[in-house]
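Entry 14. Two folds queued back to back today. First construct below, sequence then C-alpha cells.
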Amino acid sequence: MKELVLSVVITWAFINILKPIVTWIRTGEMNRSTLTTNGGMPSGHTALVAPLSTALFLETGFSAIFVLSLALTLNVIYDAVSVRMIIERQSRTINALTEGKPGFAKMEENVGHEPLEVFVSLVLSVVIPLIVYAIF
C-alpha cells in the first residue's frame, strides 16, 4: 500500500516540479506560477490519476479496482485534451472580444493540454511507479 501512495505522490510532485523547468527551457524565463496553473507541459492532471492506475495494476493485477481507476484515468485524459482545449479556445475568443472593455476580467487561457503533454505524463506515470515498486 505504501508503494501505491508513494507512486502517486512522487509522480505528481515530479511532474509539477518539472513544469516550470520546461517553461524555462521553452521561454527562457523562470515562472514559478506554472506550479499552480492549469495546462502546460507535462500534464499534472494525468500525473495524478495515471500512476494510481499503474500502481493498482501492480498491486491487484487486472482487477475490478484497476479497471475502475483506468476508466477514471481515461476520463481525466479526455477532459484535459478535448474539453479543456475547447474551453481554452473559447477563453481566447472571449478575451479578444472583451479586451479593454470595462467590467470584463481576463479569463485564464492556458487550461488544456496538447496530446504530447499528456503522453509525457503517461510515460512518467508508468515508469515512476515501476521504479518505486522495484525499490520498495
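Second construct, same run, same settings:
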Amino acid sequence: MNYKMKSKTLYLFLLSFLLFSIFSYSQTNDTAHRICLTHRMSEINKSRFKPSNVNYREVSTIDVEDYIVIPVVVHVIHNDGNENLSDQIIKSQIDVLNEDFGHYGNFVNDPRGEDSKIRFCLAKRDPDGNPTNGIIRIKSTATDLLMDNEMLTKDLSRWNPEKYLNIWIVKSIDGDVTTQGYSYMPSLSGGPSFDGDGIVMVYKYFGRFSGFHPDYELGRSCTHELGHYFDLMHTWGGDDFDHGEGNCFDDDGIKDTPNCSTVYYSGTPFCYHPYQCGNTRMIENFMDYSFDSCMKLFTPGQNQKIKNSIITYRTTLVSYNNLIETGCIEMYDSINSNNTVDIYPNPASDRLIFRTHLIKDTSDLDITMYDLYGRIVFIKTYSNLSKSTIEQALFNIQPGIYIIKGVFGGAGFTQKIMIVSSF
C-alpha cells in the first residue's frame, strides 16, 4: 500500500471514529439525556386524580379564535442555593415560551411548525388582588422534591390552578439533578381539579442561557412539560419507564407527527434524524427528547389538540374575567387588537413584521409608533406595497407597551404591541 493510500485510509478511519464517538455520546451518555417524569408521576399519583369540575360554559370565556393568554406564577422553592434563580432568568423562560408557542424568534424556524396563538404572562395580581411580579420565593429544604410526597413541596406555595399556571422551581427531584421536570396531562389528572396541577422544573433546565447545562440552555425543557400540561404525549406515543410503550405499534395520536419508536436522544452538532417505523423521525418536535438546539416546533395537529385541551379543561384559566383578575388583560387586549395590517410577533423583542394584503393594487404603508405617554418612538413609510412582508428592526427601544397607528389602502388601524427584552 503506497503512502497516499495509507494516508487516505487513516483519514477515513479517524473521521469514522470521530463521528461514531460524537454520535455515541449523544445517544448513550446518561448525563446528557432528557428525563421527563410525567408518566412516572402520573402512575404514582393516579389514585389522587379527580374528575375535572371546570365550568366549561363560563360566560366570560374568550373567543377561541383569539390569541389566548395564560397567567403564570413561578414558585421558587430554594435553600439559598443555585436553585434560587434570578428574576432575569425566570423572565427569559417566559420569553422562550412565547417564542416557542408563537413559532417565532431566532431559534424557531422550521416551516412544519406554526403559531399556536398561545402566549404567557407573569401574573400582575395575586389571588387577593394585590400587585405581584408573578415570582414567589420560599426558602425550604423541600426544594429537594420527593416523588412520593410532592405536595410537601407544592403546598409551600400554590395558587388556584383554575386561575394560574403554577410552575415550581426546585433543586432536585428525589435528589437527582439530571431529571429535568414533569407535568400532568389533564385527560388523566382532571386538570385544575387536581391539587398538584402545574409544572415542576429542576432549576438547571429553566430559562435561557442560565449557564447550568450546555445541552439544555434554551428553555425547551419547560416548553416540553407545558406540552404535557396541554395534554400532548411524547412523539413516540408511550414512554421508557414502566411498560415499554412507544414502539411502532403505538403513537401519540397526532397525524402530522411521524410515527416513531421509543425514546431517542438526538444531539448537537448534527441533530441526527433516524429512520423509524417507515418515517424520518421529527427530532425537532418539542415533545421529543432532543437537545434544546435541535428543537424547533409544535405541528398544526399538536396545536389543535392544545386548543382542544384548553376548551375542555382550562376555560376559567383563559377567561376574560380571569385575565382581568390576574392582571394579564393588557397583554390579551394588545395581542387581539383589530387591525387591517398583520403585525407580529406580539410580544416582540428585536423586530416587528408588517404583513399587508392588497392583491390588485398598491399603497403606501404609513406607520407611527408611540409610547404610552404619547411620545413618538419612530415614523416610517413603506412605499408601493401590495401583498408584502416588511421587517422593522427595533433598536434601543425599552421593554413596555406601545401603540402603533397606521394607514394602508385608505384604511387606518391601531394596535398595541408589547416589547420585551431581547437576549
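Quick look at the second one. DSSP finds nine helices and 17 strands in the chain. The radius of gyration is 23 Å.
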